[in-house]
Amino acid sequence: MSERGKNDPLRDELDQLFADLWNASSFAGHRRGFRPAVDSYRCDDPPRLFVVIELAGVDPQAIQIVLHDRTLLVAGERARPVACGRRYQQMEIDYGHFHRRIHLHEHVDPDAVAATYEQGLLTIVLPITTKAAGPVQVPIQLRSKQ
Q: May I ask the CATH class of domain 3-142?
């Protein structure tokens, strides 16, 4: 694949769209996981990438973060609360397994990556570097509301 193909945001979105087609529609009644919302941005002083993922109701122990070269994979599960014989009148919250693959447009330092989980938001800070990195598992630090 060309270098342009690796960094094309439109291609990334199309790849994710086709991957989502394999999941059942929300209107089908049988949901398979969910797709949490992601924001990513760059700050220049110092040069860092930020990835923020909305994961309300997800146990941080159920989240895996893997960094490999210029791809960040975040996966886990939001477990449905144990049923107590209830009958739903409305059912809009998605539960189950999730995974998001975020293509980074720059190399990052795997030894300096930090992840925090606070108030349902997972924030991953990735310091920018000039060299590629191998696969790294990223620990998540929990912060309580101050």
A: mainly beta
